[in-house]
Amino acid sequence: MxxxxxxNAEISVIEIxxxxxxxxxxxxxxxDNGLVLIEKWLRNKNTIEFLGIWEGMYNLDFDEDEYxxxxxxxxxxxxxxxxxQWTKRTNSRGIIAKAGRYxxxxxxxxxxxxxxxxxxxxxxxxxxxxxxxxxxxxxxxxYVYANEADVLNVAMFGKTANxxxxxxxxxxxxxxxxxxxxxxxxxxxxxxxxAVLINDGISQTERLIKLNKIAIQQMTILEEQKSPKLLK
Length: 232
What we know:
2 domains
């Protein structure tokens, strides 16, 4: 096993069938909730498409039928995909989950570089944008949302999933596929809080107002923390 150092981070590199595989786990270990980055990246439809292209070029045993099934499943909020599930279903070779002392997620150097590039771009774009949710208008508060997932979407992003799709016809997936790591953390917290509020019999309008205030408060705290450096 070899080690490389990037931005003072020690990253493991192992050899599999005479090819270098880089630890994605090490790449994000110095980032708060860094493992969520790997999960978020893997469930993104664009990522799956990239992995499928790579496997199609370098892996004769790649299961194209399973890959197509996964592509059809991707893009929905309920969709999840672990490295183990991906490798088991498609017989992939480009990315693996390794157990033991030096365990974690490892990827062929081509894929590792793509992971670093994508997440660096997500980070820099997040810095450019105002990620603090805006306070909702009276019209938004008075509107009734049929889907509880959209209550969270409006509280965080100020728009429903359908409104986002209409405004971004060139993008694949859904609004949450393009969320920052901090937004995903906040959304996870809000889902738990919303469940409690529903059990307490709080109306949707009241919950929306509360969740929007929580989103503003939590995102302000998260964004004020020192921004972690991702690999360039």
